[in-house]
């Protein structure tokens, strides 16, 4: 991972040309740092928002493509053993994304922790790409605006903000894991 000071220096020196690839890789903290650079007058805030939204959608499309094509690269037995993707599970996943794909994508984007798994699952379920992109945009825009606002107003504390992002993301991940485990145990007949 690139250090936060290095990220700030790169965005300050090169603006949008370096912001786009960094935003695909690093996400929210890059948005915070870039918006802070906008507050200091090194880049326009609207440029930051447009670039980070587009970069986020590009990264999401990459994870979607990996989910859509990646399992096919594994032999059937290995696909089932490594990622648990048997025909029944893929059918269930496809049905879920057909009925509730939009809601699932927006929640995945807003929780941040489960985002990558949700994007991979949408690809594996072969959710149509344009609705996938639209619902991702609906989740990405408020998230990007929030982090741009945080960066613009509180960006000088980006190191502390990065620490809080880690804590909150980890907390969401633990909550999601507990919820999934609880559902799994209930389906197996174990009552909590």
Structural class: mainly alpha
Query: How would you state the average pLDDT, rounded?
Result: 78
Terminal CA distance: 40 Å
Sheet bearing the most strands, described?
Answer: none
In quaternary terms, these chains amount to single chain
Q: Stretches where pLDDT falls below 50 for ≥5 residues?
A: none
Name the shape in a single word: globular
Question: What gyration radius follows from the Cα positions, in whole Å?
Answer: 19 Å
Number of domains: 1
Query: What is the string of SSEs from the N terminus onward?
Result: HHHHHHHHH
- The helix content is over 70%
The helix count comes to: 9
Report the β-strand fraction as a percent range.
under 5%
Total beta strands: 0
Structural commentary:
With 192 residues, the protein is mostly helical. It has one domain (4-187). It is 82% helix and 0% strand. It is built from nine helices and no strands. It has helices spanning 4-14, 16-26, 28-39, 45-69, 76-83, 87-111, 115-124, 129-154, 158-187. It starts with a helix and ends in a 5-residue tail after the last helix. The mean pLDDT is 78. Keywords: Cell membrane, Membrane, Transmembrane, Transmembrane helix. Its main location: membrane. Residues 37-152 form the VTT domain.
């Amino acid at each position: 991972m690139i250090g936060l000071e290095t990220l700030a220096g790169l965005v300050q020196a090169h603006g949008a040309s370096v912001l786009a690839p960094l935003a695909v890789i690093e996400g929210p903290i890059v948005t915070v740092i870039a918006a802070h650079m906008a507050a200091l007058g090194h880049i326009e805030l609207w440029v930051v928002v447009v670039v980070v939204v587009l970069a986020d959608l590009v990264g999401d499309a990459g994870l979607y493509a990996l989910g859509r094509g990646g399992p096919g690269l594994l032999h059937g037995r290995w696909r089932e053993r490594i990622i648990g993707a048997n025909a029944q599970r893929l059918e269930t996943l496809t049905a879920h994304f057909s009925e509730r794909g939009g809601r699932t994508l927006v929640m995945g984007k807003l929780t941040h922790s489960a985002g990558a798994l949700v994007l991979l699952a949408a690809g594996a379920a072969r959710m149509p790409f344009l609705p996938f992109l639209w619902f991702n945009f609906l989740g990405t825009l408020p998230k990007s605006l929030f982090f741009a606002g945080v960066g613009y107003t509180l960006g000088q504390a980006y190191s502390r903000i990065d620490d809080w992002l880690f804590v909150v993301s980890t907390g969401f991940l633990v909550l999601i894991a507990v919820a999934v485990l609880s559902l799994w145990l209930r389906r197996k007949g174990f009552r909590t």
